[in-house]
Design brief:
four-stranded mixed sheet; alpha+beta; single chain; about 180 residues
């Protein structure tokens, strides 16, 4: 009887020791599998945060530039781009070379044809600054400004398309003003 119990005790101790000995690398393997997913998630959050920060800056810069156009301080496309990029350059160095814009003015919004944004993130009109003139006291001036900027820091294309809310890799901002002075 004792001989039958002893081999089973020996076998169970040996199996237990082999089991413990086989777990040495499991932490490294688990970290490799889960750590890569964790770091990918951190990079996704970082990309979305950068895109959202750039979008907020672009919206504010375009809104401020349109006010300057309405007051007659900006009278050309290059001045419009310089004004937008002066405020937007915090997020995007080299903005003046890549910013796409379309600024149109008319006596009513019916006289303005909005630009469209293609799937690649380009505005249909290219660089356009038309129909904008200094307002005369009491005369209505309606202005529509559209700006697109292709995001240079693409990490995950899906994340950029979600953040830009237009399915393209470009940040898009528009501002419209229609008032009488």
């Amino acid at each position: 009887m004792k001989l039958l119990k002893q081999p089973s005790v020996f076998f169970s101790r040996r199996a237990t020791s082999l089991l413990w000995r086989g777990n040495r690398g499991t932490t490294s393997v688990e970290f490799a599998l889960l750590g890569s997913a964790f770091f990918m998630m951190i990079m996704l959050i970082f990309t979305i945060a950068l895109d959202m920060f750039a979008q907020v800056l672009l919206d504010d810069a375009v809104r401020n530039a349109v006010r300057q156009v309405q007051m007659g301080k900006i009278t050309s496309g290059s001045a419009f781009v310089a004004d937008v990029c002066a405020e937007y350059s915090l997020a995007t160095p080299g903005c003046t070379a890549t910013l796409q814009y379309d600024v149109q003015g008319a006596t009513a919004f019916a006289g303005i044809t909005p630009a469209t944004l293609s799937a690649s993130g380009t505005l249909s009109t290219g660089a356009n600054f038309s129909g904008v003139s200094a307002s005369v006291q009491g005369a209505p001036m309606f202005i529509l400004a559209q700006v697109a900027y292709v995001v240079p820091f693409e990490f995950i294309n899906v994340a950029n398309a979600v953040v830009t809310e237009n399915g393209t890799p470009a940040l898009y901002s528009a501002a419209a003003i229609g008032e009488e002075f």
